[in-house]
Amino acid sequence: MSENAMGGELVSCETRRRMLALLAAVAGWLVPGLGHAIQRMWGRAAACFLCVGMLVAVGAGMRGRIFSQYGSDAFDRLGFFADAGSGSFYFLMRTIEKDGPDVSKADGDYGTRFLATAGVLNLLAALHAYEVARGRKA
Amino acid sequence: MTLSHLQAMLLFALAISVAFGFLGRRRPAERARFIVWSFLVFLGVGIAVGWLMYPFSK
Protein backbone atom coordinates (compact mmCIF):
# COMPACT_ATOMS: atom_id res chain seq x y z
CA MET A 1 0.00 0.00 0.00
CA SER A 2 1.35 3.42 -0.90
CA GLU A 3 1.96 6.12 1.67
CA ASN A 4 -0.79 8.31 0.15
CA ALA A 5 -3.35 5.54 0.42
CA MET A 6 -2.38 4.84 4.04
CA GLY A 7 -2.58 8.54 4.87
CA GLY A 8 -6.01 8.77 3.24
CA GLU A 9 -7.21 5.78 5.23
CA LEU A 10 -5.98 7.37 8.47
CA VAL A 11 -7.79 10.64 7.69
CA SER A 12 -10.98 8.73 6.85
CA CYS A 13 -10.68 6.74 10.09
CA GLU A 14 -10.22 9.95 12.10
CA THR A 15 -13.21 11.58 10.36
CA ARG A 16 -15.34 8.53 11.10
CA ARG A 17 -14.31 8.58 14.75
CA ARG A 18 -15.15 12.29 14.99
CA MET A 19 -18.56 11.71 13.42
CA LEU A 20 -19.26 8.82 15.80
CA ALA A 21 -18.25 11.02 18.74
CA LEU A 22 -20.62 13.79 17.61
CA LEU A 23 -23.40 11.25 17.12
CA ALA A 24 -22.77 9.85 20.63
CA ALA A 25 -22.90 13.35 22.14
CA VAL A 26 -26.12 14.35 20.37
CA ALA A 27 -27.76 10.96 21.08
CA GLY A 28 -26.68 11.19 24.72
CA TRP A 29 -28.19 14.64 25.01
CA LEU A 30 -31.48 13.66 23.33
CA VAL A 31 -32.00 10.47 25.35
CA PRO A 32 -30.02 10.16 28.58
CA GLY A 33 -27.65 7.19 28.33
CA LEU A 34 -28.04 6.66 24.59
CA GLY A 35 -24.58 8.09 23.89
CA HIS A 36 -23.05 5.32 25.99
CA ALA A 37 -25.51 2.67 24.77
CA ILE A 38 -24.42 3.10 21.13
CA GLN A 39 -20.87 2.42 22.33
CA ARG A 40 -22.08 -0.74 24.12
CA MET A 41 -21.42 0.67 27.59
CA TRP A 42 -24.60 -0.74 29.06
CA GLY A 43 -23.87 -0.07 32.74
CA ARG A 44 -23.08 3.59 32.17
CA ALA A 45 -26.07 3.96 29.85
CA ALA A 46 -28.46 2.47 32.41
CA ALA A 47 -26.98 4.55 35.24
CA CYS A 48 -27.33 7.81 33.26
CA PHE A 49 -30.88 6.98 32.16
CA LEU A 50 -32.03 5.99 35.65
CA CYS A 51 -30.32 8.86 37.52
CA VAL A 52 -31.49 11.59 35.13
CA GLY A 53 -34.95 9.99 34.93
CA MET A 54 -35.22 9.78 38.71
CA LEU A 55 -34.15 13.42 39.17
CA VAL A 56 -36.69 14.56 36.55
CA ALA A 57 -39.52 12.45 38.00
CA VAL A 58 -38.87 13.61 41.58
CA GLY A 59 -38.28 17.25 40.56
CA ALA A 60 -41.47 17.42 38.53
CA GLY A 61 -43.35 15.51 41.23
CA MET A 62 -42.27 18.15 43.76
CA ARG A 63 -43.62 20.80 41.38
CA GLY A 64 -40.31 22.47 40.66
CA ARG A 65 -40.12 25.34 38.19
CA ILE A 66 -39.48 24.43 34.55
CA PHE A 67 -37.92 27.36 32.71
CA SER A 68 -39.07 28.21 29.20
CA GLN A 69 -37.01 29.63 26.36
CA TYR A 70 -38.81 32.98 26.73
CA GLY A 71 -37.01 33.93 29.93
CA SER A 72 -37.13 37.57 30.99
CA ASP A 73 -33.66 37.76 32.53
CA ALA A 74 -30.26 36.05 32.50
CA PHE A 75 -31.16 33.70 35.37
CA ASP A 76 -34.26 32.48 33.52
CA ARG A 77 -32.19 31.83 30.41
CA LEU A 78 -29.57 30.02 32.49
CA GLY A 79 -32.35 27.95 34.06
CA PHE A 80 -33.69 27.06 30.62
CA PHE A 81 -30.21 26.05 29.49
CA ALA A 82 -29.91 23.74 32.53
CA ASP A 83 -33.40 22.27 32.08
CA ALA A 84 -32.96 21.79 28.32
CA GLY A 85 -29.86 19.72 29.08
CA SER A 86 -32.23 16.83 29.81
CA GLY A 87 -33.01 16.59 26.08
CA SER A 88 -36.26 14.70 25.49
CA PHE A 89 -36.83 14.52 29.24
CA TYR A 90 -37.45 18.29 29.17
CA PHE A 91 -40.76 17.57 27.45
CA LEU A 92 -41.41 14.72 29.88
CA MET A 93 -41.07 17.24 32.75
CA ARG A 94 -43.79 19.38 31.21
CA THR A 95 -46.03 16.33 30.76
CA ILE A 96 -45.61 15.16 34.35
CA GLU A 97 -46.05 18.60 35.86
CA LYS A 98 -49.60 19.36 34.75
CA ASP A 99 -50.51 21.66 37.66
CA GLY A 100 -47.55 23.99 37.08
CA PRO A 101 -44.81 24.91 39.54
CA ASP A 102 -45.39 25.70 43.20
CA VAL A 103 -42.30 27.33 44.65
CA SER A 104 -44.15 28.78 47.63
CA LYS A 105 -43.01 25.71 49.62
CA ALA A 106 -39.55 24.24 50.09
CA ASP A 107 -40.62 21.20 48.02
CA GLY A 108 -41.08 23.27 44.88
CA ASP A 109 -37.76 24.98 45.41
CA TYR A 110 -35.99 21.63 45.81
CA GLY A 111 -37.84 20.37 42.74
CA THR A 112 -36.41 23.27 40.69
CA ARG A 113 -32.89 22.23 41.75
CA PHE A 114 -33.59 18.57 40.95
CA LEU A 115 -34.72 19.48 37.43
CA ALA A 116 -31.71 21.72 36.79
CA THR A 117 -29.36 19.06 38.16
CA ALA A 118 -30.90 16.44 35.85
CA GLY A 119 -30.13 18.65 32.84
CA VAL A 120 -26.58 19.49 33.85
CA LEU A 121 -25.87 15.85 34.75
CA ASN A 122 -27.13 14.76 31.33
CA LEU A 123 -24.92 17.34 29.58
CA LEU A 124 -21.96 15.99 31.56
CA ALA A 125 -22.85 12.42 30.53
CA ALA A 126 -23.16 13.47 26.87
CA LEU A 127 -19.75 15.15 27.05
CA HIS A 128 -18.32 11.98 28.63
CA ALA A 129 -19.80 9.87 25.80
CA TYR A 130 -18.13 12.24 23.29
CA GLU A 131 -14.76 11.99 25.03
CA VAL A 132 -14.96 8.19 25.20
CA ALA A 133 -15.82 8.00 21.50
CA ARG A 134 -12.82 10.20 20.69
CA GLY A 135 -10.63 7.83 22.70
CA ARG A 136 -9.63 10.40 25.28
CA LYS A 137 -11.31 8.62 28.19
CA ALA A 138 -11.80 5.00 29.19
CA MET B 1 -45.02 14.55 46.13
CA THR B 2 -43.83 15.70 49.54
CA LEU B 3 -40.37 14.86 50.85
CA SER B 4 -38.65 15.96 54.02
CA HIS B 5 -35.42 17.96 53.74
CA LEU B 6 -33.38 14.90 54.68
CA GLN B 7 -35.19 12.62 52.21
CA ALA B 8 -34.64 15.14 49.40
CA MET B 9 -30.96 15.39 50.27
CA LEU B 10 -30.58 11.59 50.42
CA LEU B 11 -32.21 11.13 47.01
CA PHE B 12 -30.10 13.89 45.47
CA ALA B 13 -26.88 12.52 46.96
CA LEU B 14 -27.71 8.99 45.82
CA ALA B 15 -28.46 10.00 42.21
CA ILE B 16 -25.35 12.16 41.86
CA SER B 17 -23.06 9.62 43.54
CA VAL B 18 -24.28 6.75 41.34
CA ALA B 19 -23.94 8.82 38.15
CA PHE B 20 -20.45 10.08 39.05
CA GLY B 21 -19.38 6.59 40.13
CA PHE B 22 -20.43 5.03 36.83
CA LEU B 23 -19.01 7.84 34.69
CA GLY B 24 -15.76 8.33 36.58
CA ARG B 25 -14.71 4.78 37.39
CA ARG B 26 -14.49 1.70 35.20
CA ARG B 27 -14.01 -1.33 37.49
CA PRO B 28 -17.07 -2.42 39.51
CA ALA B 29 -15.17 -2.49 42.82
CA GLU B 30 -13.78 1.03 42.26
CA ARG B 31 -17.25 2.22 41.30
CA ALA B 32 -18.82 0.80 44.43
CA ARG B 33 -16.13 2.35 46.63
CA PHE B 34 -16.50 5.75 44.95
CA ILE B 35 -20.32 5.67 45.17
CA VAL B 36 -20.26 4.87 48.89
CA TRP B 37 -17.52 7.43 49.59
CA SER B 38 -19.24 10.18 47.58
CA PHE B 39 -22.63 9.44 49.16
CA LEU B 40 -21.17 9.61 52.68
CA VAL B 41 -19.32 12.87 51.89
CA PHE B 42 -22.55 14.43 50.54
CA LEU B 43 -24.35 13.31 53.70
CA GLY B 44 -21.61 14.48 56.06
CA VAL B 45 -21.21 17.90 54.44
CA GLY B 46 -25.00 18.38 54.27
CA ILE B 47 -25.47 17.60 57.95
CA ALA B 48 -22.43 19.71 58.94
CA VAL B 49 -23.69 22.74 56.98
CA GLY B 50 -27.15 22.20 58.48
CA TRP B 51 -25.73 22.34 62.02
CA LEU B 52 -23.59 25.38 61.13
CA MET B 53 -26.75 27.23 60.02
CA TYR B 54 -28.77 26.11 63.05
CA PRO B 55 -27.80 29.04 65.36
CA PHE B 56 -29.01 31.53 62.72
CA SER B 57 -32.41 29.87 62.35
CA LYS B 58 -33.76 31.37 65.61
Count of folded domains of chain B? 1
Could you give the distance between the termini of chain B? 28 Å
Q: Count up the helices of chain B.
A: 2
Overall geometry of chain B comes to elongated
Strand content of chain A: under 5%
Number of DSSP strand runs of chain A: 0
Structural class of chain A: mainly alpha
**Helical stretch tally of chain A:** 6
Q: Spans of chain B with pLDDT under 50 lasting ≥5 residues?
A: none
Mean of residue pLDDT of chain A?
A: 90
The description of the largest β-sheet of chain B is: none
Assembly state (oligomeric): heterodimer
Output the helix-strand order of chain B: HH
Number of domains of chain A: 1
User: Radius of gyration of chain A over alpha carbons?
Assistant: 19 Å
Radius of gyration of chain B: 14 Å
Structural overview:
The complex is a heterodimer of chains A (about 140) and B (about 60). The model of chain A has no long low-confidence stretch (mean pLDDT about 90). In chain A, α1 (about 5-30) runs antiparallel to α6 and α4 (about 75-85) crosses α6. Chain A starts with a helix and ends with a helix. Chain A has about 140 residues and is an all-alpha fold. Chain A is built from six helices and no strands. Chain B has one domain (about 5-15, about 25-55). Chain B is built from two helices and no strands. The longest helix of chain B has 26 residues, at about 30-55. The N and C termini of chain B lie far apart (about 30 Å). At the A-B interface, α3 and α6 of A face α1 of B.
Top keywords for this entry?
heterodimer; A: 138 residues; mainly alpha; 0% strand; elongated; B: 58 residues; 2 helices
Question: Would you kindly provide a brief summary of this structure?
Answer:
The complex is a heterodimer of chains A (138) and B (58). Chain A is mostly helical and 138 residues long.
